[in-house]
Write a sequence for this structure.
């Protein structure tokens, strides 16, 4: 199945308007090209995520990331998404960086399942 290419909303402000669900617990993010864990998700929407990275990423770069979300009933939703690094804040003293990522490509079935996860009862939103 081909990936769904997400349409740009024109600017970062419009992309940020998407409802972002806070992550309960720790959801690790893996670079699909290197299999290295790059950090954990802070919050997530269908148009992007806040990544709390273990080290700064390359500004304005494209990445292929994988992560798994716990679904209702205990099933796991595995997502692999093309992401674009829009901004980062390296001011944390721990060597971590907060990175704003825009989703650019998610397989259709995974995108629909992600939407279901985002809309599931019990979520907390930013």
């Amino acid at each position: 199945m081909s990936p769904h290419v997400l349409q740009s909303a024109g600017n970062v402000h419009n992309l940020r308007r998407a409802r972002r669900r806070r992550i309960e617990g720790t959801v690790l993010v893996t670079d699909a090209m290197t299999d290295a864990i790059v950090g954990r998700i802070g919050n997530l929407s269908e148009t992007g995520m806040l990544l709390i990275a273990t080290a700064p990423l390359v500004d304005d770069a494209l990445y292929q990331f994988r992560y798994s979300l716990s679904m209702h009933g205990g099933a796991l939703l595995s997502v692999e998404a093309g992401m674009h690094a829009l901004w980062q804040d390296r001011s944390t003293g721990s060597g971590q960086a907060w990175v704003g990522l825009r989703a650019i490509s998610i397989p259709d079935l995974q995108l629909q399942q992600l939407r279901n996860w985002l809309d599931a009862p019990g979520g907390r939103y930013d």
Remarks:
- The helical segments are 12-16, 108-119.
- The longest strand covers residues 76-89.
- The CA atoms of residues 66 and 80 lie 4 Å apart.
- The beta strands are 3-5, 21-22, 28-31, 37-45, 48-53, 62-70, 76-89, 97-107.
